[in-house]
Amino acid sequence: MQIFLYDTTLRDGTQREGLSLSVEDKLKITMMLDELGIHYIEGGWPGSNPKDAEYFQRVRETPLRQARVAAFGSTRRAGGQCEDDANIQALVAAQTPVVTLVGKSSVLHVEQVLETTRAENLAMIGESVAYFKALGKEVCYDAEHFFDGYKLDADYALSTLRAATEAGADVLVLCDTNGGSLPHEVAAITRVVRAQIGASATQIGIHTHNDGALAVANAMAAVQEGATQVQGTINGYGERCGNMDLIPTIANLQLKLGYSCVTPEQLARLSELSHYVAAIANLNPDDHAAYVGRSAFAHKGGIHVAAIAKVEHSYQHIDPTLVGNQKRVVVSELSGRGNIRLRAEELGLHLNGNERDVLQQIKERESKGYQFEAAEGSFEMLVRRSAADYVPPFELLDFTVTVEKRGNNEITALATVKVRVGNELMHTAADGEGPVDALDAAIRKALLPHYPQLAEVRLVDFKVRIIDAHLGTAATPRVLIESARGDERWSTTGASPNIIAASYQALWDSLELPLLRELIRK
Amino acid sequence: MQIFLYDTTLRDGTQREGLSLSVEDKLKITMMLDELGIHYIEGGWPGSNPKDAEYFQRVRETPLRQARVAAFGSTRRAGGQCEDDANIQALVAAQTPVVTLVGKSSVLHVEQVLETTRAENLAMIGESVAYFKALGKEVCYDAEHFFDGYKLDADYALSTLRAATEAGADVLVLCDTNGGSLPHEVAAITRVVRAQIGASATQIGIHTHNDGALAVANAMAAVQEGATQVQGTINGYGERCGNMDLIPTIANLQLKLGYSCVTPEQLARLSELSHYVAAIANLNPDDHAAYVGRSAFAHKGGIHVAAIAKVEHSYQHIDPTLVGNQKRVVVSELSGRGNIRLRAEELGLHLNGNERDVLQQIKERESKGYQFEAAEGSFEMLVRRSAADYVPPFELLDFTVTVEKRGNNEITALATVKVRVGNELMHTAADGEGPVDALDAAIRKALLPHYPQLAEVRLVDFKVRIIDAHLGTAATPRVLIESARGDERWSTTGASPNIIAASYQALWDSLELPLLRELIRK
To answer: I need a surface site. Which of A29, A291, B66, B177 has the fewest CB within 10 A?
Structure first.
């Protein structure tokens, strides 16, 4: 059976604290969602956010394959008319094929928040839906607080749905607005709705939030009771604890329950979709996200690694390639030579009998505080440097970093470095926000004339962890750096009682790695 | 009905990529879990990790209120004897009241991974359980891959449970090891197990993983079918996509389904528990975590804010104070003056009408990245410095820190500081293991002639967390220092894009605090 995917990343998703998207960002995400088979894209709330008008204008000029764009807004004001309701008219002006209208299902909200009568609320729903049906729109009716309202007064909650259906709504979307419902409640109430409204051709939709860590389960429970539209966001972005995450829901419905959501080719780009939206939103992807996280199919324990070497699916719930992810063997001091070889092969590298040497170096460095399991880039560098034909693209010879405070002046950070590239010696200096930032700037200044492509390499994450913390300021900091160039990502590490030295080691690896990878490609 | 909480943060949780805990960390978490009502604490796998032996030895000397410590291990090797099985004997040596044994439920794993016979696997389960029952232990039997195994061969999977029950296992824990099961499957299979094993007194437990974003829902489905032990980790830490998160599961079971898990007072510290474990693990807490995240009850949208002003629970699924969290309106500043007064009084300090001033300073510093939750010492310093009669025992005027590398020589770190004590100017210099260590040494050198008692002040912990990590090397490090003098302990903090500046602020507080406390005592 076909399930229709309704994405509200651009509207409800941006309610997440700290997340905001430009019109440009929204258009990029729209095109990606369309390409990957999302059926409905809710672009914004033109009545509440004037910026959204520009989006709706520009998206009309954007050719989409199949996705239908929806504008979101509430039913008309109490005591008013659709014709002169600013919010309703903003929805008209958006000129979308789909309009999603949110209305009240709960007597608490009708009487105490909206401060109107039950009858007027039914009229607001019916007239607003009818107004857009008369304009030829597809209308989704979002029944706000439906499950909570049903528990307060089931008859009234059902009567609001009837008002929408009788006015011609195409989809009745049951919303768990506060996100606190449980799967068995969602299932039972959806079953009642289907029985009551089932005679009509109206489809049922489900819109859930994650306040009980149950948003995906709640959406699936509704689908199993006959809902055919699922509303959510990419990566579960949204207010409070987030909206239902479409990513695992799509994978669960399609791979585990046999529903059709997208094509297998689109499903195989689910990881890409998740990472792409995170990148546009300027948020770090969740490494532990179901199906698409970097760690979702990572195996650390020696027993698990040994088992998957025998039977690939022994510790995996699905084949990760179905969702565009991959199995990953995590390298750590507990691993043996088999792990090292497997890991190197995954990176497309050959050890040519160097396993023992590389393992030896890993153990030595881990005893000094390095940790390679989260730093695949540094592991890759160890392997590459152990090759017989390795030629370093540059060498860091000397550096000095000075941090200074004089009275009430701003604290300054200055770095100087001496770098050899081929036969040339580069001597550079730079200021920075702090000592590591200054060091990074000085090294790049020395390398850029020779390797202009390093301008595209960005540091996207910087972590410090103190090991042996009980040694106080003499403890060993371990630095982890994540770098990116376009879609490519790598993480590198360094460890030393001197935090500047640890950062310097991680920085070195992070800048040398893309140069070596490029050489090989040529 | 009572539900027993079984925490495996210290064992399965540490399988999370990038997470590692020292023995000291593990003991701290153990005490917190015990205080907050967790019934079972799985401390480690002594047979696979030699470091765990030290934990089990030290936890025996730690007085716990009610929690029972469990050691984890697998059933004996195929073809062997419990008496000479290294893994089994490591469990014996751990001397815990509870032993948790993991065994195979799935014919795939028995035949293709373990490469033994179905009959031998049953003998391994039965003999291993009986061995520990004969030693007087409480035995939890973890049925690995139970749901997957049941789907492959239900009769065999059930026979493994019977082998454990007949040997005297106290709890049969159904494990969704690969994390891919769905709630309706977990419910149906748990129902069968209850029907088949229900006659015995054996309890049913549930252990789930989050690979389908359904771990909490799966655990709840099992509880609704009669499971009475739930196994999970704090914050859902764990391999791949993580284990079931105990935090929302406890809240859901207790607040929504009426089960008893912990006391209401313990429940009201759920947010604290989540943040405490994140701090020890040196991971940023998830702001969007259900129930306990900083954003879990944050309201951004104007309509929602207006509604909650009228009816508090109109957009909240529970009262946030039940789990120690709070409602937060994102744009406006909510007054926390009452909080400040309460905290100061807990420290034996009086604010004398300075609440507003101290609150202002806290807000200003928190906006720069400070966090006072885990740094009571720095909060105390804010309060003390705001007093009308405050006289600083010393002032740090200038400092310079230089880190230098010349060719293959050791990297050096040197600090010079200028400090005023009374009318005297002290100008000192010192080397260190790193820049912060050098700075600490130079400051102490300047202060010791005036305050010889500082020789007794030790730095016992030093942590660095990067906030805004996506800014790369220009991100803001937050430093947390824990200091001690005899039995007295205090923690201080600093934050700045310059890590040396952040450390310097935390160091200053850490050295001034004991001097001020002493002055007051005199």
So the answer is: B66
- CB contacts of A402 in chain B (<8 Å) are 400-403
Classified as helix, coil or strand, A224 is helix
Based on the number of CB atoms within 10 Å of its own CB, is A422 exposed (0-12), middle (13-18) or buried (19 or more)?
exposed
**Would an 8 Å CB–CB cutoff place A472 in contact with chain B?**
yes
Residues found in chain B: 522
Interface test with B, best of A209, A286, A403 (most B CBs within 10 A): A403
Closest by CA position to B415, among listed B448, B440, B447, B397: B440
Nearest C-alpha neighbor of A164 from the set A103, A222, A83 = A103
CA distance B114 to B107: 10
Residues B239 and B295: beta-carbon distance below 8 Å: no
Instruction: Read off the amino acid at residue A465.
Output: R
Distance from C-alpha of B255 to C-alpha of B292, rounded to nearest angstrom? 14
Restricting to B residues 201-220, those with a Cβ less than 8 Å away from any Cβ of A are 210-214, 216-217, 220
pLDDT of residue B133 exceeding 90: yes
Name the class of domain A4-262.
Answer: alpha beta
Task: With CB atoms and an 8 Å threshold, state whether B433 touches A498.
Answer: yes
**Which of A241, A299, A437 shows the shortest C-beta gap to B473?**
A437
The full 3-state SS of B252-279, as one line of letters, equals: HHHHHCCCECCCHHHHCCHHHHHHHHHH
Q: What was the ipTM of the complex prediction? A: 0.76
How far A330 CA sits from the closest chain B CA (Å)? 8
Residues of B in contact with A480 (CB under 8 A): 18
Nearest to A12 by CA among A54, A35, A45: A45
Chunked mean pLDDT (size 10), chain A, 522 residues:
97 85 88 97 86 90 95 96 95 97 96 94 98 98 98 97 96 97 98 84 94 98 97 97 98 98 97 87 85 91 75 90 89 63 79 80 79 81 88 93 90 94 94 91 94 89 71 74 85 89 92 86 57
Q: Distance (Å, rounded) from C-alpha B72 to C-alpha B176? A: 17
Residue with tokens 């998740």: A274
Question: Which residue of chain B has the CA closest to A419?
Answer: B407
Residues from chain A that touch B299, judged by Cβ atoms under 8 A, are 239-240
Distances (CA, A) of A458 to A481, A482, B99, B355: 10, 9, 49, 44
Alpha-helical regions (H) of A135-256: 146-152, 154-166, 183-197, 215-224, 246-251
Out of A17, A300, A404, whose CB is closest to B298?
A: A17
User: CA of B234, closest CA in chain A: separation in Å?
Assistant: 14
Is B497 an 8 Å CB contact of chain A?
yes
Q: Is the CB of residue B21 less than 8 Å from the CB of residue B14? A: yes
CATH code of A395-521, in short, is 3.30.160.270
Burial track A383-411 (b if 16+ CB lie within 10 A, e otherwise)? bbebeeeeeebbebbebbbbbbbeeeeeb
Domain coordinates of chain A in residue numbers?
4-262, 298-385, 395-521
Tokens (6 digits) for A218 = 């709640």
Mutate to test the interface with B, among A464, A478, A511 (most CBs of B within 10 A): A464
**Residues A435, B499: C-beta atoms closer than 8 Å:** yes
Q: What is the pTM of this model?
A: 0.76
Give the minimum alpha-carbon distance from B162 to chain A in angstroms, rounded to a whole number. 23
Count the helices and strands in chain B (H runs, E runs). 18, 16
By CB neighbour count within 10 A (0-12 exposed, 13-18 middle, 19+ buried), where does B357 fall? middle
Q: For chains A and B, count residue pairs whose Cβ atoms are closer than 8 Å.
A: 349
Helix H or strand E encompassing A231:
strand A229-232
